Amino acid sequence: MMITGKGRCNVTTADDVPEIIKNIVGNGRFLNSSVRAFDNAAVMAFFEKAGVPLKVERGNRVFPESDSAADVVDAMLHHLHQLHVDIRTQTSVADIVAENGAVCGVRLQSSDTVSADAVIVAVGGASYPLTGSTGDGYKMARAAGHHITPIFPALVPLCTAEPWVRDVQGLSLRNVRAALYHAGKKQAEEFGEMMFTHFGVTGPIVLRLSRRASELLSQGAHRLDLRLNLKPALTPDVLRTRIDRDFSKYQRKQLHNGMVDLLPHRLIDIVLRTAELSPERPAGQVSAKERNRLVQTLQALPLTVTGTRPLAEAIVTAGGIDTREIDPRTMASKLVRRLYFAGEVVDVDGFTGGYNLQAAFSMGHAAGYHAVQNLEGE
Distance between CA atoms of 118 and 190, rounded to whole angstroms? Predict the structure, then answer.
């Protein structure tokens, strides 16, 4: 919680429920019941009542007014203390203990056993292992008889083959469009902000595209293509007119200097060389055919995606416990009685924007509520 939202904690989204489900791209429909039972309005009401005023920012992202994730964590801990919850730290769980098809406790790494009427596995995925999410939940679920769909990094920066990205590392671009292709077929497209790094690209639109890219790579794709439209607001004809005007204005200057009104300085030579144009040529001597080629490059600057950053660096883990083996209303295991799952350990993942935390809160509420209700009903 402390590292979400760059330390500000994007607790949820102000979108309506159908939009939330749409943005949980990994098995979002599985969450229909749990999200409707404890939706984003309920999440916001919980934190407001707990003394954490919230605000809605661009993209319907909901943050604490203090911009401090610590306030969110402190409020949750305070609530647990009020309920007299026994919190045990530095106590690693090794296994789930079950007898006659029902949970009866957990076994610790110390070999001690803690008895329990019900167990909720909410230990996260396998990304950010320094926070404790080392993938132990998959092992526990598998030992209990559950199937684990293959895991892969989602919301993760992409690595590219082109060496020129190192020359522009740190450069951020706004209002650009990025499209992901595999074998010539468009797989996904996003509009917004991105940034170049020493290894490739990152930023909001890249992270959203990365889920599909990572999925394709995990399925055996060796090469993906990323095409950047640096001027998506302009049609090719309008962009060509803009280039003609600029080249007329700077006709006696080198082509490099004739592009200063179109692109960030560090990107100009890269675009020109990709379009097979010498930056030193006079702007007024560029032919019509060459100008058309420059238009094409500006609206489809190619990058070759060779992989993603490691799973440990991913914001979210895709894959996990097979949702077909979990009751979507209660989060109860269909295989072992009194066993429940919640959060990233389940094969559910969404885009950035508060969707993953909302999914975790909704699943956690369903698991907690029904674990008690089912016990009382026995």
Answer: 43
